[in-house]
Amino acid sequence: MIGIGTLQKLTHTSAGVNHHLYFKRIQFISRYYTNINRIILIVLLAVLFTGLLILIWKSRIKAKALLKIEMILMALFIVFMIATLTMVYFKKLLVFPYLLLAEGIVFLLELFTLILVFRGYRKN
Question: Which pLDDT score, from 0 to 100, does residue 121 have?
Fold first, then answer.
């Protein structure tokens, strides 16, 4: 995520970076960021968020602290991803495709961590 901020800063100083990011942003928006894909992704994230809140609510008494922390972090990250997909500020950034890519990678890593913690919790 620090690299995304660095890229955004370079858009104001380097013309080559600016042109590359502008081209990739236009290419990404025309190919992948269509209205139907955006709606599907937002609905999927909302369903994941709701399911995670139900898990947090059901495990509020018997879950270990690490599992609770991981679930809360995952819920907050899902809210951040939905905000990134819907807020105009993020859409106007030239690094928008790379921001979504980085968020997707972090989301998968967080999901993998949550699964590992959950499996470790169930074995005990």
Answer: 67
**CB contact at 8 A, 95 and 4:** yes
Distance (Å, rounded) from C-alpha 93 to C-alpha 82?
Answer: 16
pTM reported for the whole predicted model? 0.77
pLDDT tens digits for range 52-111 = 888 777 766 566 777 778 888 888 999 999 999 889 998 888 888 988 989 889 989 988
- Give the Cα separation of 92 and 33 in Å (integer): 13
Cα distance between residue 31 and residue 37, in whole Å: 10
The domain spans of the chain are 2-123
Length of the chain: 124
